[in-house]
Design a protein that fits this description.
Strand order of the largest sheet: 3-2-4-5-1-6
Strand content: 15-25%
Radius of gyration: 16 Å
Number of strands: 6
Number of helices: 6
């Protein structure tokens, strides 16, 4: 069976939620799932629960650099090294561990910010094992990624409580 590449993108809430839902579905059908989160700490509510689900592995995010726009040039360099290494280890683990589904959450952002090499991700997608389904999330996917993808789902914000001053809430937004 052909594996596919999924993109969940857009400015609306729910990109990660959709990827997590697919991960739970896959694990429920006996598939092995690897989830790697870029630009996000492990303090988000789903991380602990996902780690308790048989078949799902979540790569720990051991460093936080804060919002990209608030990083110093030195922090951006450190973040680029960290996320490039995280990407490299993820791609090796996904293949060597014979995972069925790989989720790279917020991979679009680290590519768009230049913290990882988009060409490296593209090369992996092109040469990935035939059994490996891949999910990419984040805003503003490049045309390269859109062209390579089999599914592209855009989640559009129509209204969000943040616009009225309500901050992110634990258990809902993270």
């Amino acid at each position: 069976m052909k594996s596919c590449v999924h993109i969940y993108c857009g400015d609306g809430k729910g990109k990660t939620t959709a990827a997590i839902g697919l991960s739970v579905r896959a694990a429920g059908c006996g598939k092995k799932v690897l989830i790697t989160r870029f630009l996000k700490t492990d303090h988000s509510g789903e991380v602990k629960t996902l780690g308790d689900i048989p078949g799902i592995s979540v790569t720990p995010c051991e460093r936080s650099f804060g919002f990209f726009t608030k990083m110093t040039e030195e922090q951006k360099k450190e973040a680029a090294i960290y996320y490039s290494q995280l990407l490299e280890s993820t791609l090796i683990k996904a293949v060597d561990g014979e995972y069925d589904l790989l989720v790279m959450d917020e991979i679009m952002a680290v590519c768009n910010y230049g913290l990882v090499n988009e060409e490296e991700v593209s090369k992996f997608l092109t040469g990935r094992p035939e059994w490996l389904e891949v999910v990419l999330t984040g805003r503003n996917p490049s045309q390269t990624f859109v062209t390579m993808a089999d599914y592209v789902s855009e989640i559009k914000k129509v209204k969000h409580p943040y616009d009225q001053g309500l901050n992110a809430r634990r258990g809902i937004e993270y």
